[in-house]
Amino acid sequence: MSNFSIPYGRQYITKEDEKAVVEALYHPYLTQGPKIDEFEKVFADYIGSNYAVAVSNGTAALHLCTLALNVAKGQKVITTPITFAASANCVRYCGGEVVFADIDPETYLIDYNSVQKLLLEAPKGTYAGIIPVDFAGRAVDLERFRKLADEYGLWIIEDACHAPGGFFTSENGIQQNCGNGNFADLAIFSFHPVKHIACGEGGMVTTNDEELYNKLLLLRSHGIIKDNRGQQYQNTVEFSGGKEEYPLWYMEMQDLGFNYRITDIQCALGLSQLQRADEGVAKRREIAEKYFEAFKNESFVKGQSGSVEGHAYHLYIVEVEDRLGLYNYLREHHIYAQIHYIPCHLMPYYRQFGWKEGDRPNAENYYKHCISLPMFPALTDEEQKFVIEKVKEFYE
Ligand SMILES: Cc1ncc(COP(=O)(O)O)c(C=O)c1O
Question: What is the tens place of the pLDDT at every residue in 331-379?
C-alpha cells in the first residue's frame, strides 16, 4: 500500500463531467452564457427553493447575502464558532459585529438556548440576524430559529455549504430540505472540490424572496443592469431615439456591486455533478452507517455523528481521547483525517475584539476531541476498512 493515500474529502469526477466541461469550452460563451441559468434552475429545483443565484464561491455568496440584507457598521449578528471562518467574516465585510453563540455538544450545531440567552440579555434591536450553519451536513432545525428570529425581528442566512441533500422534519411532518427558503431568508452553498457538488470553485444563494433575489442578481455583477429594466434614470440620460426608447448598448450601474460571477465552464461541471447528487448523498450515508457500526461499542469514541436522519454527511466526525496521537498515527499510514474546526472566536483576528478561551466552553471542548475521518462518495470499501482498522489499532 505504498502509494495509498486517503484524504478526508475528495471530488468525484466522471467521463460525463469531462464531456460536459469540454462541450462548454467550445460554446460561444465561456462566462455569462446559458449554463449559468440552467444550473440555477436545476439547483433551485433540487433544493426546493423558488430562486437560485450562482456565484464564484461560497464566500462571495455569503458576502452578497450580508450586502443584500444591508448589514452595516455596528450591527450585531450571531453565528456559531464551529464553522469555516467565512460564515462569520461576511458580517465583518460589511462592518458588522460577530457574536458567537455556543454549540450544542450533542449535535455540534449552533445551540438554540445559547442564541436565546444572547437575545434575552440585550435590548431588542441589538441584533440584526443569525447565521446558523448546517455543520458537517446536519440540518439545523430552522423552524425553531425562525420563530425566535420573528420574535426579535431578525433575518436568517442559512450556511448550507455542508448540506445539499440534507433535511430536517418540520412540526407538520414535512421534510424541509437545507436551503429551501421556507424558514431562512437566504441560504448559501459552496461548490469547492471537497463539497457534495464540485465546480472547482463556485457558490449558490437560494431564496424564496423575489426582492432579495433581484438584489443578489444586481450585486453579483457590479450593480449593473443591461436591459430596459434599467430605467431608473431615464430622465437624466438622453438618447437619440427619444426618452422612451433605449438603445441596445444601454446599461445602468444602480448600486455598488462586485464581480462575483461564475463561469459557464464551472456551471457545466456543476450541472453534470448535480445529476449524481442523490447518489452521492446515499453513498455518504452508507459510509456513515459503516463507521457508526464499527465504532458504536468502542469506548475510545465519545461521540460520533452517525445514524442521523436527514444528515448529508459532508463530514464524519468522532470525538476521541488523544486526538493528536490518532491524527499523527493515521498520517503515518497515509490517512489524512482533518480537524473541523478550530473555534472561530479563538482565531487571532477575532481575539482582537475581546474573544478568549473559556468564552464558548462547549465549542472549545468539542475542538479538543474532534476528528473528521475520510468521507466522500468515491471512498472504497477497502479504503474505509483500512481507516477503521487503523483507528482501532491505535487504541489497542
Ligand atoms: C461552512 C462553510 N461556509 C462557507 C464556506 C466558504 O465557501 P468557499 O470555499 O466556496 O468560499 C465554506 C467552505 O469551506 C464552508 O465550509
Answer: 999 999 999 999 999 999 999 999 999 999 999 999 999 999 999 999 9
- Pocket lining: 314 vs ligand 1, CB cutoff 6 Å: no
Rg (CA), the chain: 22
The answer, yes or no, to whether any atom of ligand 1 lies below 6 A from the CB of 80, is: no
- 1: confidence class by pLDDT, cuts 50, 70, 90: very low
Distance in angstroms (rounded) separating the CA atoms of residues 362 and 368: 10
| pLDDT tens-place string over residues 244-267 | 556 667 788 999 999 999 999 999
Ligand 1 in reach of 133 Cβ (< 6 A): yes
Cα 380 to middle of ligand 1, angstroms: 26
- Please state the atom number of ligand 1 nearest to the C-alpha of residue 191: 10
Planar angle of CA 182, 185, 187, nearest 5 degrees: 85
Angstrom distance (rounded) from CA 246 to CA 107: 56
Taking the centre of ligand 1 as the mean of its atom positions, its distance from the CA of residue 378, in whole angstroms, is 21
Q: Whose CA is nearest to atom 16 of ligand 1?
A: 84
Distance, CA of 152 to CA of 148 (rounded, Å) = 7
Atom of ligand 1 nearest to the CA of 203: 10
What would the grid cell of residue 168 be?
Answer: 430536517
- Mean confidence (pLDDT) of the chain: 94
- The CA dihedral of 121, 122, 124, 128, to the nearest 10 degrees, is -120
Q: Check: CB of residue 295 under 8 Å from CB of residue 304.
A: yes
For the question of whether the overall pTM of this predicted structure is more than 0.85, the answer is: yes
CA distances 87 to 82, 93, 181, 184, 357, Å, are: 10, 11, 18, 15, 20
Sheet containing 155-159: which strands, arranged edge to edge? 51-55, 203-207, 186-190, 155-159, 127-131, 76-79, 97-100
What's the gap in Å between 191 CA and the centre of ligand 1? Answer: 8
